[in-house]
Structures are given as C-alpha cells and as structure tokens.
Amino acid sequence: MSQTLLHESAIMERLVLSPEKAEAIASLSFAREDQERMRALMARNNQGLLTEPERVEMESFRRVGTLLGILQARARLALDKPRSPG
Question: Per-domain residue ranges for the chain?
Fold first, then answer.
C-alpha cells in the first residue's frame, strides 16, 4: 500500500469523531451501477480486452475501494472502542 494512501486514510480517520459519523462510513457502499461497471471492467480485463481509458477507470475504482475499505475498518474499530465518560 502506498504511503500516500496511508496518509490520506489517516487524515480521513480524524474526520470520524463521532459514533454517528463512524456508523455512516461503515455503512457506505458502491451504487449498483458502479458495482456492475466494476464487474464488467474486471471481465474485460480478464479477457485481455481492456482499453487504456477502461484501465484508468478500473484503477480509479480500485483506489477508491481500497480507501473506503480502510476507512470502514477504522470506523468499525472506533465503534468497538469503549467510550470515555463525558
């Protein structure tokens, strides 16, 4: 994982300051249309038919998915931590 992505996720993690925000992040998911597009891109990639613009698009989905996964993991960890009183 790149250092840039680790720095970006650490910055984003600091935005998760409340349980409500952590719960909202943990529940995020890609829209159905995006999921279908990702599957289509992966299938074309597996067949060796991916164009350069499609490769860039697939890489963008991968990067966003990776960042989202990191943020969701950290949000879930924040939700599992005991909260300090008042």
Answer: 3-80
